[in-house]
């Protein structure tokens, strides 16, 4: 096949010729305007003008060009002078051609006196009064560089349009993922390849390894491990078992304690698959679930159960820096709370506080007032606590303690993964992340961690969502230290480093080391006294100090909880950082192996017992079928039929009924548009399978077929 004769090749040639023609026309237009633009730019680029161009007074000096164009002579005052303005239709001076800029007197950059000069344009000379350009201080240059740098953000992997709008209002440029972005905002965990290919000036809104606390099963494993290491400090979550590994322990606890248990999928979200039970014997030994003791006495407001969505920003994991947003959401259940019983355990609108569950209930309250509604702000909860004489500051101190301990349970993994993925990120932190902590409060005002969301919802369906989430995104983008990284300088350094590595240059190579977590490393000298490792300031320490200074001055409505503002709490949290020296997270101990063996043996015993029970039931049913006469079986059938007649359906909300009617109408229209009834009726008529009921139900169709019409194509 000859490609030159193909339509594809011809189309490519047409597009190429069109591009060439467009480039040629653009060059011609630039060529026509180039003398004027070049003359004005040469004149005005010498110094900064005092007033805008429109307000300048342009005076025409008459005379021959040979006399007035000399830069060493002023025009003679005895010559006649005519002052008139060359203006176009818009009132601005009209410039035609140009020769250049001629200063009237010597320019002194240290002087504040104005500088006068001439612009020669097509045998006409104009006087311009300007001020000399001054040298600015390095601090002012740095401030201008930070404020004038326009960063780019990629939100193509996010489904929330609000993030793009807020970023654009803050001065960010929206780009695609293939461009050189400064921030990548994604709703899901990115792959490792993306982390590896990131530049030193780029940031992403997820930390590698944060799944350790964002999946229910991994969060339970980490918190249980920390509870064994620190039994008096980590009572911050309900008693939890991971099934089927902890099936034996859960069954043993259920036999000795009469409690209600809540069961969740190990990786579920939005309240899907959650149910309550007080009998764990109904569970299968191989089901993958998270089993927790149900907190049967929660704190109630107006008789409703609620939980708190607390937004936490992590800007660094080494060193660990946590910020909590002062505003958040309180999600309420839509049915008034009653302690769980076998009769109301199925009422999810009473026991669950998830918005995705309760929004389907007809009792969901949409209220713009802060003191009502099924979704309220944390400030409204604080006001309610104040009115009821609760200590609000102590309560939020306990909430901050729960958040810090939850993040510290996975801190070794976060630190290891960060340094493995970003060994050379020495200018700014490569990641930041907003986490949504779900906190449940009991009647004693003690907070419990329920789960952690790595990508909390930023939908703004209600007014309270807009009042909370919009400032949250704005303050987050302001707090992150993206502007501290000079994109052009970093790219020049990287290109220079690559070039030196390829050419194997023996010159000085810019070394990059890891970010130093502390301000300085202290080592003992020969005399035994501690000294700094390096007397000269470390560049990584300088960048870390810049980041800390930037965050402290741009917190907005955030508050810093780690490092804690109270110096006495630093030593308390310091002991949790030493967990890696005690036992590895992934290491198997003798106790864990023994527990797994016991759980496996118990599962086998339960499976054998259930198999024997099923065999016995099957044998009994066969015997009954053989012994029971026909009249007894008929009587049993009639009894079951009467039970079905007396059965009453459950409550159906108005929203569910509207949805059912909508789908029913869509089904009817689809049958009508696709002519499914006519097609089936015609097929039955051709095969001779029409019954009397079909003929009486659709008499018109039967009449058309008798007359020989095609009903499948008729309207």
TrEMBL record:
Q: Which gene encodes it?
A: LOC111597808
Name of this chain's protein: Tubulin polyglutamylase TTLL13P
Q: Among the record's GO biological process terms, what is one?
A: microtubule cytoskeleton organization
Keywords from the UniProt entry: ATP-binding, Ligase, Microtubule, Nucleotide-binding
Q: Does the keyword Nucleotide-binding apply?
A: yes
What organism does this protein naturally occur in?
A: Drosophila hydei
- What top-level branch of life does the organism fall under? Eukaryota
Family annotation (InterPro entries)? TTL/TTLL_fam
List GO molecular-function terms, semicolon-separated: ATP binding; tubulin binding; tubulin-glutamic acid ligase activity
Q: Which PROSITE patterns match?
A: TTL
Basic residues composition-biased segments: 71-87
């Amino acid at each position: 096949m000859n490609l030159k004769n193909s339509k594809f090749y011809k189309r490519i040639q047409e597009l190429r010729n069109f591009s060439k023609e467009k480039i040629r026309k653009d060059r011609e237009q630039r060529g026509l305007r180039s003398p004027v633009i070049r003359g004005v730019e040469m004149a005005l680029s010498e110094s900064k003008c005092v007033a805008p161009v429109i307000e300048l007074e342009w005076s025409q000096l008459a005379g021959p060009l040979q006399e007035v164009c000399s830069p060493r002579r002023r025009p003679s005052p005895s010559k006649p002078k005519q002052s008139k303005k060359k203006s176009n239709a818009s009132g601005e001076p009209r410039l035609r051609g140009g020769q250049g800029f001629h200063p009237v007197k010597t320019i002194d950059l240290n002087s504040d006196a104005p500088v006068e000069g001439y612009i020669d344009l097509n045998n006409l000379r104009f006087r311009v009064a300007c001020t000399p350009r001054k040298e600015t201080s390095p601090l002012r240059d740095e401030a201008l560089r930070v404020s004038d740098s326009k960063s780019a953000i990629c939100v193509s992997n996010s489904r929330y349009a609000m993030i793009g709008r807020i970023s654009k209002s803050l001065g960010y440029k929206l780009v695609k993922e293939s461009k050189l972005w400064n921030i990548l905002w994604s709703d899901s965990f990115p792959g490792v390849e993306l982390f590896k290919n990131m530049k030193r000036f780029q940031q992403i809104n997820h930390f590698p390894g944060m799944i350790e606390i964002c999946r229910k099963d991994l969060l339970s494993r980490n918190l249980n491990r920390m509870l064994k290491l620190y039994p008096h400090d980590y009572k911050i979550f309900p008693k939890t078992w991971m099934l089927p590994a902890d099936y034996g322990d859960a069954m043993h606890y259920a036999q000795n304690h009469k409690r209600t248990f809540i069961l969740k999928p190990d990786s579920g979200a939005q309240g899907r698959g959650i149910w309550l039970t007080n009998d764990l014997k109904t569970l299968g030994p191989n089901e993958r679930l998270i089993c927790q003791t149900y907190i049967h006495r929660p704190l109630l407001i107006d008789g409703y159960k609620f939980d708190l969505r607390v937004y936490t920003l992590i800007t660094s994991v080494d060193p660990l820096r946590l910020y909590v947003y002062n505003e958040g959401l309180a999600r309420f259940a839509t049915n008034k709370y009653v302690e769980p019983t076998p009769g109301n355990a199925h009422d999810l609108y009473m026991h669950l506080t998830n918005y995705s569950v309760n929004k389907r209930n007809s009792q969901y309250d949409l209220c713009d007032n802060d003191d009502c509604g099924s979704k309220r702000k944390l400030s409204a909860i604080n006001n309610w606590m104040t009115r009821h004489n609760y200590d609000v500051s102590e309560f939020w101190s306990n909430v901050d303690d729960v958040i810090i301990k939850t993040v510290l349970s996975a801190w070794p993994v976060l630190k290891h993964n960060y340094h493995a993925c970003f060994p050379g990120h020495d200018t700014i932190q490569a990641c930041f992340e907003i986490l949504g902590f779900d906190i449940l409060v009991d009647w004693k005002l003690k907070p419990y961690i329920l789960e952690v969301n790595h990508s909390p919802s930023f939908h703004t369906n209600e007014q309270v969502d807009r009042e909370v989430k919009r400032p949250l995104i704005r303050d987050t983008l302001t707090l992150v230290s993206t502007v501290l990284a000079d994109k052009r300088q970093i790219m020049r350094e990287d290109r220079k480093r690559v070039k030196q590595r390829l050419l194997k240059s023996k010159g000085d190579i810019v070394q990059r080391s890891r970010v130093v977590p502390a301000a300085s490393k202290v080592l003992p000298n020969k005399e035994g006294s501690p000294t700094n490792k390096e007397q000269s300031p470390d560049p990584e320490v300088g960048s870390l100090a810049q980041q800390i200074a930037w965050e402290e001055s741009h917190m907005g409505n955030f508050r810093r909880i780690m490092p804690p503002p109270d110096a006495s709490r630093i030593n308390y949290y310091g002991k949790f950082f030493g967990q890696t020296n005690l036992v590895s997270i992934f290491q198997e101990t003798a106790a864990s192996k023994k527990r797994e063996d016991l759980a496996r043996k118990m599962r086998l015993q339960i499976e054998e017992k259930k198999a024997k029970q099923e065999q016995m039931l099957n044998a009994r049913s066969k015997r009954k079928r053989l012994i029971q006469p026909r009249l007894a079986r008929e009587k049993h059938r009639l009894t079951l039929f009467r039970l079905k007649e007396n059965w009453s359906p459950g409550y159906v909300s108005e929203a569910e009924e509207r949805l059912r009617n909508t789908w029913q109408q869509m089904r009817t229209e689809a049958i009508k548009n696709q002519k499914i009834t006519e097609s089936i009726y015609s097929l039955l008529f051709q095969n001779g399978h029409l019954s009397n009921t079909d003929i009486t139900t659709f008499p018109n169709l039967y009449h058309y077929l008798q007359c020989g019409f095609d009903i499948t194509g008729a309207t």
